[in-house]
Amino acid sequence: MLRFRDPIRLIPVLFLGFIIVGTAILSLPLATADGTRAPLLTAFFTATSAVSVTGLIVEDTPVYWSLFGQSVVMILFQIGGFGIMTAATLFGLMVGRGFGLRDRMATQVERNRLETGDAASVLKLVFKITIYVEAAVALVLAARFAITHGMSIPAAIWHGVFHSVSAFNNAGFSSFSDSVMSYQTDPVILGPIMLSVILTALGFPVMQDIRRHKLRWRQWSLHTKITVSGTVALLLFGLVATAAMEWDNPDTLGPMTTGAKMLNAAFHSVMPRTAGFNSLDVGSFHDETIMANYFLMFVGGGSAGTAGGIKVTTFLVLFAIVLSEVLGRRDAGLFQRRFGRAVERQALSVTVLAAALVFAVTTYIASISPLPLDDILFECISAFSTVGLSTGITADLPPSALIALCALMFIGRVGTITVATALALGGRERPYRYPEENPIVG
Question: How does this protein lie in the membrane (predicted)?
Fold first, then answer.
């Protein structure tokens, strides 16, 4: 029997409920620009993408949906982003000590040194960070749209708020048909969006740790050190890879000045890891750039935040395990700390399950669609990692493929957190152990 008091089981049910409600509202004639009812699959796909803060679309958001419909989409990804941040953080508190949500908690988040009073204080802090950051970014964007780009005050405020909320929640939805490609040379538009995405992609535990200990590296938890260093490394990799591979591409960076090339390469190094805004035409990327994006999207951002993917910590734990085997070390670890066996097994389990799921859905869609395999794989990784970037094939996929992508988005948004928490809390000791025997590996 489903125990709805169990938060690990309740969270997916709540998110599914929001998707159903969002689908119903977006199916109303009021939600579309022409006043007709949106097809059920279109409304369902859009609601799923919004609640899972992915950003994949089958219809052009500012053209197909009315102002009411766009507002509903914004509310859905605000709910999805805030809900995932709070759920992931509270699950982390449970993992740290195994307490229920009703217990007062002074414990660790994902085994770091985040101390809080109770669940209410966690929610309060996440809410404050959400309001402050979204308001600040919205103000900057609205002012820029109005002063520099000649928008009316109401239009500037609307576009500023929409993009601020979308960026903070790593949703990737845009109120412009070309995302932010029209502003690819404007650092005052791209910069705040990048900073907001990076901040929330770090995850709430890292934000709190840095807030408490500032830039005192020695006082940071292992989780914060791994997340921050891994994020910096991946951002640099994305910047260098995008700039090097697209520098002379006439359809992307080629026609730009050197400064604009570096700005857009930096912007795109951030987006594949979670957000999905694009200042460049992803469909025009070279194959090698697409390959780099596979990696960046699959890894994703930090834990207990709005980012998707298997998470930076998961990837670096696996990297440390491989490195320890290559160097013949007994224990795997980073920053003069070793990992527990349970963490190593959780990281391996999450990665294998994620890869298997992406492989299965990619194979299924490839079997029913004539579209190129590399584009389908890109779409599936983007959906699972709740990135939202696309090479432009989403609207061309058959209905069953869109449903499969909805499943990927939902599992990628809610499933990775619940599975990781269940693995951490669900361990049971057997009263016996089998005899050891090692098969040949490799």
Answer: Multi-pass membrane protein
